[in-house]
Design brief:
The structure is a single chain. The strands form 2 sheets. The protein has a 4-stranded mixed β-sheet with strand order 1-2-4-3. The protein has a two-stranded antiparallel ribbon with strand order 5-6. A hairpin with a 4-residue loop joins strand 3 and strand 4. The chain is of the alpha+beta class and 143 residues long. The chain is built from 5 helices and 6 strands; from the N terminus they run αββαββαββαα. Helix 4 runs antiparallel to helix 5. The longest helix has 17 residues. The chain starts with a helix and ends with a helix.
């Protein structure tokens, strides 16, 4: 898959997210998603969302909550699993309100800020997370 087709996939994922009509003040894109609007990395094949309050309530109307593969809380998979909405975040303890309230906004969508994203990627500690941290730090140095 070439870079342009990945970009189209990312745009389609964001369109699908917007079509859910979740209240924008009550959710934020997390996972690797916050790198996308800054041009650091393409979205790939899915979006991870952290939600609270009315956004979580709306998500409950759209899908069935299940136990996530890691940690506590619940996850709702929508659009054949391409959008996953979580009401908690792992590993470690995360203040969902702080994640959403401190998120950066691009095109009316909240994205968890890069500081929190780096903390999470360090906690995950997978090889791809360390690669992503390097990309984020390079981005921060140049912007």
């Amino acid at each position: 898959m070439n870079k342009d087709s990945k970009r189209i996939t990312g745009e389609k994922l964001l369109e699908s997210l917007k079509e859910l009509n979740l209240p924008s003040e009550d959710f934020a894109v997390f996972g690797s998603g916050p790198m996308y609007p800054r041009g650091i990395k393409d979205l790939g094949h899915d979006l991870d969302i952290v939600a609270r309050g009315t956004a979580w309530e709306k998500a409950l109307e759209l899908g069935t909550p299940e136990k996530p593969s890691q940690g506590d809380g619940k996850v709702i998979e929508l659009n054949e699993g391409s959008i996953e909405i979580f009401n908690s975040w792992v590993p470690g303890y995360w203040d969902i309100d702080e994640l959403i309230d401190s998120a950066d906004i691009f095109d009316s969508i909240r994205y968890v800020n890069l500081e929190n994203l780096i903390k999470w990627k360090k906690a995950m500690g997978r090889p791809k997370d360390f690669e992503h941290i390097e990309l984020i730090e390079k981005y921060l140095e140049n912007n």
